[in-house]
Amino acid sequence: MSDVAERCRKVIARLLKVPLERVALQANFVKDLGMESVQSIELIAALEEEFNIEIDTDRAQGNETVAKAIAQVEETVKK
């Protein structure tokens, strides 16, 4: 797993107050991790701060799984 992916997982676990082990790549934010709608905005902000990037909020809110969120962060970091 890449450094970006691992850092994303840690941010997600910290924000959602779940064990890191539950933040699997295939985990669904709502169904598996219990994320509420307001937390999606908080997650975007936390990832932006962690990586010093600006994330496309509209696209990010469509990310249903951890893997999709990580892919977007990795793509944005490369720009």
Q: What's the topology here?
A:
Elements: H1 3-16, H2 37-51, H3 57-60, H4 66-78
Helix pairs in contact: 1-2, 1-4
Q: Would you kindly provide a written description of the structure presented here, covering whatever features stand out?
A:
- The longest helix is centred in the middle third of the chain and has 15 residues.
- The protein has one domain: Orthogonal Bundle (Non-ribosomal Peptide Synthetase Peptidyl Carrier Protein, Chain A), CATH 1.10.1200.
- It is an all-alpha fold and 79 residues long.
- The protein has 4 helices and no strands.
- α1 packs across α2 and α1 packs across α4.
- The mean pLDDT is 95.
- It starts with a helix and ends with a helix.
- It is globular, with a radius of gyration of 11 Å.
